Amino acid sequence: MLTINAELRKETGKSFSRKLRIHNKFPGILYGVGNSNILLTLDHNSIFNLQKQISFYQECLFLVIKDEKYKVKVQAIQRHSFKLKLLHIDFLHA
Predict the structure, then answer these.
(1) Pairing mode, if any, of strands 35-43 and 3-8?
(2) Percentage helix, strand, coil, to 5, in the chain?
(3) What CATH topology corresponds to 3-93?
(4) Residue 2, SS3 per DSSP
(5) Of 32, 29, 34, whose CA–CA distance to 12 is shortest?
(6) Which of 7, 4, 22 is nearest to 61 (CA)?
(7) Which tens digit of pLDDT belongs to each residue from 16-70?
């Protein structure tokens, strides 16, 4: 099973997302029924390389946030229209 490392974030909005992308990171969210939403910051290169594998979309993944492991599935990914960049990712509690 694939493992993804993520960091918590508090800031939201377009300007903060742009600042993240300048530093080769991008925003994401973890949500699910009965759980509160968790705002995430993810490393672009590691996720970009993982998302090339079919198992990234079909299987459950482990998301590690501050030494806590969550079993998740990829719900949605937003990509830039012509650059090879990921803009946002949604994870769903599995």
Answers:
(1) antiparallel
(2) 20, 50, 30
(3) Ribosomal Protein L25; Chain P (2.40.240)
(4) coil
(5) 29
(6) 4
(7) 999 999 999 999 999 998 889 999 999 999 999 999 999 999 999 999 999 999 9
Query: Is the pTM higher than 0.70?
Result: yes
Contact 44, 25 (CB under 8 A): yes
By DSSP bridging, strand 35-43 and strand 25-32 are antiparallel
Tell me the three state secondary structure of residue 10.
coil
pLDDT recorded at residue 1: 86
Radius of gyration of the chain (CA): 13
Domain ranges for the chain: 3-93
